[in-house]
Design a protein that fits this description.
This protein is of the alpha/beta class. Helix content is 35%, strand content 13%. Helix 3 packs parallel to helix 5.
Length: 404
């Protein structure tokens, strides 16, 4: 049955009649107003700087590092290769804050980390002349596999192969190739750790049994939870080991909860049905950030554009996070099949550049309080299409990017 929306009633009040004051009253009012304005100005001047300093996040006081400085005459003082820039400076500043260095990176795949030869070959395949300065390598991936020789106890059991390259070796190869090394670490999308140690995973509220995301026959698996001290300590040890090895930045991805059904939430602890659950993720992120900073590296957070569009944005809490740079991953393969929510099906058609543009416009409000770099990925998209999509987003003001 439909109900007619009758709209909102608006009530008006009658204006009161005000009569003029006497000359003495006017003089008194003017004097009082001057005193009030002066007092407010003094208070504002006194507290402005402390408030600004209080709201700065760690690392914000570092000066911006610009990839190019242009004089008024139009001459560039940098010899770096140019990438397309947005047509208006306001568009750039709306997404890239003034304290954020242009982050221009390429990414290799985990299969490129089998040995030194495969990594060097992958680096040779990277596009040239695109101002790419950083190289991202996936050292801990979705599912929990480790792609380097780790000394962390649980990580040894999670290594993808028995013989993996050391962190020092990976860093050396990247630097020798002319790039700055960046590590990518998947955090809570880990199905291996709860198998090794059950205390790292979700358990049912009544019986304490391990929760899995589906029936075993259908491939159900456990997940790592940010409510587990075992899990948080394990990931913190991973980022400590990596950031201490010479990686200039550590990109931490998958600060996520599983996509719980209502039947799942009915058997799990009440805290997982509470919006306040986001604090478990942000507390873990802040711990990892402190660890990474202590090793003179920097932390970024990567989020999935599809997850954001579906409403899974728990980690994006600017008032709670000490990390203020987010990499938005637009997986062009993934969104080509559409993104489904309870109420809407979002379709993405056309060229990769068109899909990327549509996605960024759908989710950019979620990222408004952060510095943003956009990652363009997809196995079925060739390099020229990825670069074309990158150029489209640069026109929209997103001048920091990751290709691959």
């Amino acid at each position: 049955m439909k109900f007619r929306n009758k709209g909102r009633k608006i009530y008006k009040t009658k204006e009161k009649n005000y009569y003029g004051k006497s000359p003495a009253g006017k003089a008194f009012s003017i004097g009082l107003s001057i005193l009030l304005i002066g007092g407010i100005g003094f208070i504002g001047y006194s507290v402005a700087e402390p408030i600004v300093n209080y709201t700065k996040k760690k690392g914000d006081d570092k000066p911006a590092v610009s990839s190019e400085i242009t004089t008024q005459s139009g001459e560039s003082t940098s010899d770096s290769i140019q990438i397309p820039t947005a047509s208006g400076s306001e568009a750039v500043l709306s997404h890239q804050k003034v304290n954020f260095e242009n982050y221009c990176a390429a990414a290799v795949k985990e299969t490129d980390l089998l040995n030194a030869d495969t990594l060097k070959l992958a680096i040779k395949r990277l596009p040239t002349g695109q101002n790419i300065q950083y190289l991202e390598v996936p050292l801990k991936v979705k599912g929990g596999r480790i792609y380097y020789s780790s000394g962390v106890y649980y990580a040894i059991s999670s290594q993808a192969f028995q013989e993996m390259m050391s962190l020092d070796q990976i860093v050396e190869i990247i630097k020798d190739s002319g790039y700055k090394p960046v590590a990518v670490v998947s955090t809570f999308n880990d199905n291996l750790l709860p198998v090794i140690d059950g205390e790292a995973g979700y358990v049912t509220a009544d019986t304490g049994e391990q929760w899995i995301d589906n029936d075993y026959e259908a491939g159900g698996k456990p997940w790592t939870t940010p409510y587990s001290q075992v899990a948080v300590n394990y990931i913190n040890s991973i980022v400590d080991e990596i950031s201490a090895a010479g990686f200039e930045k550590v990109v931490c991805s998958d600060f996520v909860f599983p996509h719980f059904r209502q039947s799942d939430l009915d058997m799990l602890p009440d805290e997982l049905s509470d919006p306040g659950r986001a604090m478990a993720l942000t507390a873990a992120a802040n711990l990892f950030n402190n660890t990474i900073l202590s090793n003179e590296s920097a932390m970024f957070i990567e989020v999935s554009s599809s997850e954001l569009l579906q409403g899974y944005s728990d980690i994006l809490q600017p008032m709670l996070l000490n990390v203020n740079t987010v990499i938005l991953n637009i997986d062009l393969d993934e969104i080509s099949y559409g993104v489904y929510t309870d109420a809407t099906v979002y379709e993405f058609s056309g060229k990769p550049a068109d899909k990327a543009e549509k996605m960024i416009k759908l989710v950019e409000d979620d990222l408004d309080e952060f510095n943003v770099a956009v990652r363009l990925s997809g196995s079925n998209v060739n390099m020229s299409e990825l670069l074309e999509a990158r150029d489209k987003l640069v026109e929209l003001g997103y001048s920091s990017f990751v290709i691959g």
